[in-house]
């Protein structure tokens, strides 16, 4: 078997000029990144709530720890058991899997992980409660469970009210498990661009959560965590007086699609800055009025649209193939090997394409952070 070549996939070195970073690469403007983390930290402190930052955005232990140490995050969310394992191995001690874990092998791994860190998981099935309890008992650990309710996203989660109550009661009565509260994330509302529509969807979700909490209290079940909310809606849940934990992820980076949603005045939301970019080079000028860069389909996710070229309105990224991006250049101003920053359409899946983040400040590489949980999808 051919041995892997070590070290050839690192695009930069600390101290290197940004202009010398190999492309395509995923770069972080550290000043903007740190400002975003600080802004969210101020919000949660002012509102008296917690922030369990979602690591599905960045999949990085380094970034997760930075959010906890510098942004006031109480813990981290992730989507898969493998993500949780990798983050805990990287030093994260409090992790919520905001998903259902039903495969016996994955449940077993989750229980083993609960012997190393605080581990929470979402539940929307009565039978799943038994399986989690058996695994927790077998390893003599405690797994905290949140009952997930479907508050409008039409994905996972039971109906609010009585169905949620039944699962909560069973969790509370099961060995090795703790009922810790409710998961109510309205994912479908995050990218709704109109402010009034977005607010209406969250208002409905908040009411469903509040009604469920009342029913839980009637059987003496208290919620330590009432969680949900993302970058597109966190203000509504965070000021609702009902939610006490928000789960924003993309706020640290922002992407082209998030910057299309609007605030109450009809302006684009601006409290968070673009800090994540695909660093790309012009590799061909053979055709008039266009240039070709080296960031194509394999360098990004296009599920939320094409990337936007940062800081430029004279050129436009118009289409791409596997290895090439086509840029409209009407005035033919671009030159061979010229570097551009692309704002990805969707930051989360784009990050999963790369092995490294290149942290840049003042045009110089300051740090390299591995994408710790890259490919951890099981």
What does this structure look like?
The chain has helices at residues 30-47, 61-70, 81-89, 104-113, 126-138, 162-172, 195-218, 234-238, 347-351, and strands at residues 25-29, 50-54, 75-78, 94-100, 118-123, 143-148, 177-183, 225-228, 245-246, 276-284, 290-293, 308-309, 316-320, 325-328, 339-343, 356-361, 364-370. Helix 3 links the parallel strand 3 and strand 4 (94-100). The protein has two domains: 18-27 and 270-370, Lyase, Ornithine Decarboxylase, Chain A, domain 1 (Beta Barrel); 30-254, Alanine racemase (TIM Barrel, Alpha-Beta Barrel), CATH 3.20.20. It is globular, with a radius of gyration of 22 Å. With 378 residues, the chain is an alpha/beta fold.
């Amino acid at each position: 078997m051919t041995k892997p070549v070590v070290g050839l996939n690192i695009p930069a070195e600390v101290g290197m000029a940004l202009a010398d970073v190999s492309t395509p690469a995923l770069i972080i403007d550290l000043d903007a990144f740190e400002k975003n983390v600080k802004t969210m930290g101020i919000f949660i402190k002012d509102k008296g709530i917690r922030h369990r930052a979602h690591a599905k955005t960045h999949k990085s232990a380094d970034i997760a720890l930075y959010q906890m140490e510098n942004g006031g995050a109480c813990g981290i969310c992730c989507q898969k058991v493998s993500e949780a394992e990798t983050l805990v191995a990287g030093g994260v001690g409090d992790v919520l899997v905001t998903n259902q874990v039903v495969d016996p092998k994955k449940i077993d791994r989750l229980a083993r992980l609960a012997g190393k860190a605080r581990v929470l998981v979402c539940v929307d099935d009565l039978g799943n409660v038994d399986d989690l309890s058996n695994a927790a008992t077998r390893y003599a650990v405690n797994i905290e469970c949140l009952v997930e309710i479907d508050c409008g996203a039409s994905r996972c989660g039971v109906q609010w009210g009585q169905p949620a109550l039944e699962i909560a009661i069973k969790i509370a009565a099961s060995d090795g498990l703790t009922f810790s509260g409710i998961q109510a994330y309205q994912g479908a509302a995050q990218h709704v661009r109109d402010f009034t529509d977005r607010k209406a969807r969250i208002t409905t979700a908040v009411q469903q959560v509040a009604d469920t909490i009342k029913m839980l209290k009637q059987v003496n079940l208290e919620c330590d965590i009432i969680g949900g909310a993302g970058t597109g809606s966190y203000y509504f849940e965070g000021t609702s007086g009902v939610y006490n934990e928000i789960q924003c992820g993309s706020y640290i980076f922002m992407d082209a699609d998030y910057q299309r949603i609007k605030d109450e005045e009809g302006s684009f939301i601006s409290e968070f800055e673009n800090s994540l970019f695909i660093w790309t080079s012009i590799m061909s000028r053979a055709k008039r009025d266009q240039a070709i860069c080296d960031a194509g389909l394999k360098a990004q996710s296009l599920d939320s649209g094409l990337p936007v070229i940062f800081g430029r309105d004279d050129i436009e990224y118009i289409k791409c193939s596997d290895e090439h991006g086509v840029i409209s250049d009407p005035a033919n101003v671009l030159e061979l090997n010229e570097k551009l920053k692309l704002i990805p359409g969707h930051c989360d899946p784009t990050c999963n394409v790369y092995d490294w983040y290149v942290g840049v400040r003042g045009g110089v590489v300051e740090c390299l952070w591995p994408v710790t949980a890259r490919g951890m999808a099981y």
